[in-house]
Amino acid sequence: MNLSKWLFEQNVDVVTVNPHLVKRNKENRDNIQSKSDKKDAHVIADMMKNGYYTFIHHSRESIEKLRVLMSNRDMVVKRLVSSINQLNRWVEIVFPELRQVFKDVTAKGAIATLRLFPTPVELRSLQPQDIVKGWKSVIRAL
User: Fold this and answer.
1) pLDDT value at position 81?
2) N or C: which end of the chain has fewer CB within 10 A?
3) What integer is the mean pLDDT of 6-35?
4) What percent of the residues of the chain are helix, what percent strand, and what percent coil, each to the nearest 5?
5) Would the CA dihedral through 35, 37, 38, 41 be positive or negative?
6) What is the pLDDT of residues 24-51, one digit of tens each?
7) Which part of the chain is the Transposase IS110-like N-terminal domain (predicted)?
C-alpha cells in the first residue's frame, strides 16, 4: 500500500504539486538554477500556501488494475517493436536477399523461410519444389 492511500484511509487530505511548476518557481525564487532538498521544500511550502496544488483522487481498485494492465501492455508493445527491429537487423546482416522476396520479414512466409533455410547457402542447394514443400509443412504449423 502506498503512502497516499494509507493517509487517505486515515482521513488525511493528500495533495500534489506539479513538478514543472516547482522547477519554474524554484528558478524564479532566487534566479539560480541550483538544486537542494531544502530549497525544494521551501518552494513546495510556498506553493501550498498560495494554493498551487491539486487533491489526489483515489480511484477504485478496478481502475488501478486497468492502469497496471495498460502499463504492462505498453511494455509488451515496446518489447515487440524491439524484437522486430532486431529481427530486421539480423536479416539485413545474414540474409539480405530475403527482402527481395518478402517485404515484411515477420510475415508467415518469411518466418517459414527463416526457420527452414536460415542462410542463402541452404536455399541454393534445393530445387523449387522442395522449397514449396518445406513451406507448406511449416506454414500449416504456424
Assistant:
1) 96
2) N
3) 82
4) 70, 5, 30
5) positive
6) 888 777 767 777 788 888 889 999 999 9
7) 2-96
Contact 119, 94 (CB under 8 A): yes
- Sequential DSSP letters for 11-38: T---EE--HHHHHHHHHHHHS-----HH
Cell of 133: 514443400
Nearest Cα residue to 40 out of 53, 55, 25:
25
Q: Is the pLDDT of residue 138 over 90?
A: no
Q: How does 75-90 read in b/e, with b if 16+ C-beta sit within 10 Å?
A: eeeeeeeeeeeeeeee
- Paired residues of 16 in beta bridges: 54
Query: Phi and psi (nearest 5°) for 47?
Result: -65, -40
Site of grid cell 515487440: 80
The pTM (predicted TM-score) of the whole model is 0.55
d(CA 99, CA 89) in angstroms, rounded, equals 12
